[in-house]
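Illustration 12: Knr4/Smi1-like domain-containing protein.
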Amino acid sequence: MEKKSIVEILYILEKEMNIKFPSLYVRFLSEEVQDKEPYELITEKEEYIYIYNIYDIQERNDVYSIQNIEPNYFLIGQDGDIGYFIYVKKNNESDNIYSLDLGALGSLEMNKEATDIYHLGKYIE
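Figure caption equivalent — predicted structure in token form:
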């Protein structure tokens, strides 16, 4: 898959959802993840995180109704019941990665996990 087409898909999502993806996430998704499935990272705590590819991100956000509950966050990956999120509020987007139990959305504060997607974990081949 071409890098440009992934960027174009993200741009369309931004317009449709009135959000802004952080630049490092756009780069990571277009250069690293692309259309790979699965794309897994392992954290320093030895937790395995499944990072959604370009074809899964919108569907996973729709399934969990993320934008209805947490409109400024976007689900980018998962480890069991734990979701991993980026902050996508337009003109205030952040490269920080957050986590939260998907059952606690809207009732608990997000936990900061990393300063950006590149510091979340290492790719498992």
